[in-house]
Design a protein that fits this description.
With 372 residues, this protein is of the alpha+beta class. 33% of the residues lie in helices and 28% in strands. Strands 1, 2, 3, 4, 5, 6, 7, 8, 9, 10, 11, 12, 13 and 14 form a 14-stranded mixed beta sheet that branches.
């Protein structure tokens, strides 16, 4: 058996944390899952809803561990966290060392970190986050492509492409969709991702932000999850965080030093919240939960007290043009989605589609994925 499995180890360049089993482009896990050579688990011959996401994920990791042990290729994760942190400090130019520390504490997940191994060190990494998405009023599990970095001396060598292949290969058997927000859509189109929607960014000067009531803003971040959960009921094809996942993200943003404020009405009842950062008299609102236009105006009035301009990231379906008809938003990152296995998708959701774009055309509600 091991002799035949060695055919899968053509270049031995990808490390999968936490077992750091080296295999080429994830084909090892794929081939073994299809043939079930270890006689474990089963699952994918059954109905998708009964297969069990967690069991399958554990099964694929167990297969990698068994084969790597047989081939003498298992390395423990001791010391690799430090390598990944050092890689991010050297490669993630949009993050300073403190921001990397906070990310490692609140976002880093070694169970879903893919690493490229070359010259006896990690030269690239790609982390995938597993989330629950609401789609046609059903809960499905999806992979979210998140942090990715490559050491400067190892760029332009298709290392990210190889890591993405490995992540997709695993997701094909564990998750119905893989999603990402990116300003480099061509990289993902080559992997069968499709463009679903755009993110819009409005830049609004302080003089246009004075029509609200700044006293409706409270500097607190308490009991925000019910607001978030209620807001998400207006959307479909969107990630729905659990309360624990939500609280973890709130802690992450707080420790990055971002402001989290609650928007209230005349009766002091909460009607939304926002997460934003400020620098050089400019504010950047990256998450905005609201239920009426007055909440938006109140927030902008509050932020404009100490800032000259405010930028706000919103989804393609949000109509800020009604508030600011003379402003034209800048198109920011694109939502790219890959349908990993259309047969399982069709069976689980009782549809008949072949790609992500046609899947999203089935939705009657808009999509919103700005807090994940």
């Amino acid at each position: 058996m091991i002799k035949s499995l060695q055919l899968c180890f053509q270049s031995g360049i990808i490390v999968v944390h936490p077992f750091f089993c080296k295999y080429d482009r994830g084909f090892l896990c794929r081939g073994l899952l299809q043939e079930n050579r270890f006689g474990l688990g089963g699952g994918f011959a059954n109905d998708y809803g009964n297969a069990g996401f967690d069991d399958t994920c554990l099964f694929s990791r167990y297969l990698c561990q068994c084969v790597a042990q047989e081939l003498g290729m298992v390395e423990t994760y001791v010391g690799y966290d430090a390598q990944i942190k050092d890689l991010l400090i050297k490669s993630a130019f949009n993050m300073n060392e403190n921001e990397v520390d906070v990310w490692m504490k609140y976002q880093y997940n070694p169970q879903h970190m893919f690493c490229f191994w070359q010259d006896d060190k990690i030269t690239s990494c790609l982390q995938v986050t597993k989330r629950t998405m609401m789609f046609l009023d059903r809960q499905i599990r999806v992979s979210v492509i998140g942090m990715a970095a490559t050491l400067p001396d190892y760029r332009q060598r298709k290392q990210f492409s190889n890591l993405l292949d490995a992540a997709i290969s695993q997701a094909t058997y564990n998750d119905l969709l893989t999603i990402t927000y990116t300003n480099m859509p061509k990289l993902f189109e080559a992997k069968s991702f499709q463009h679903i929607s755009n993110t819009k960014e409005y830049w609004i000067g302080a003089p246009l932000c004075r029509s609200g009531n700044p006293f409706h803003i409270k500097q607190k971040a308490e009991n925000l999850y019910p607001l978030y959960f209620q807001f998400m009921q207006y959307f479909d094809g969107s990630i729905l965080l659990s309360e624990d996942e939500f609280d973890q993200l709130i802690q992450y943003h707080q420790n990055l030093g971002k402001s989290i404020v609650t928007i209230t009405n005349e009766d002091k009842q909460p009607k939304g919240f926002a997460i934003y950062s400020t620098k050089d008299k400019q504010a950047h609102v990256e998450t905005l939960i609201y239920f009426d236009s007055q909440a938006i105006q109140d927030l902008l009035s509050y932020i404009s007290l100490n800032n000259e301009v405010t930028s706000i990231l919103i989804s393609e379906s949000e109509r800020f043009d009604k508030l600011f008809p003379l402003h034209f938003p800048r198109m920011d990152k694109k939502l790219m989605v890959r349908l990993n296995n259309y047969k399982l998708f069709d069976k689980f959701l009782n549809t008949n589609i072949r790609n992500a774009k046609t899947a999203y055309e089935l939705l009657e509600k808009p999509t919103w994925n700005h807090f994940q």
